[in-house]
Design a protein that fits this description.
DUF2188 domain-containing protein, 1 helix, alpha+beta
């Protein structure tokens, strides 16, 4: 099964969604970026892909990713 990796990370004064060869979005909060990343992940899992999603904490730590789908 194909696996996709996404992350939600702080970039200067905003939050972005990152993945292999991509970075998009400028979200005012981690929560908004996380919701957008979850919607993106739903599209991938909907076509049979497994998704690993890592969400950086406000203190800049990056925990282990969560497997979705």
């Amino acid at each position: 099964m194909t696996e996709v990796h996404y992350g939600v990370v702080r970039v200067e004064d905003h939050w972005s969604i990152v993945g292999e060869h991509l970075r998009f979005g400028r979200y005012a909060s981690q929560a908004l970026a996380s919701k957008a990343a979850a919607r993106l992940a739903e599209q991938s899992t909907g076509v049979g892909m497994s998704v690993l999603l890592a969400v950086q904490h406000e203190d800049f730590t990056l925990p282990a990713p969560t497997r979705l789908g």
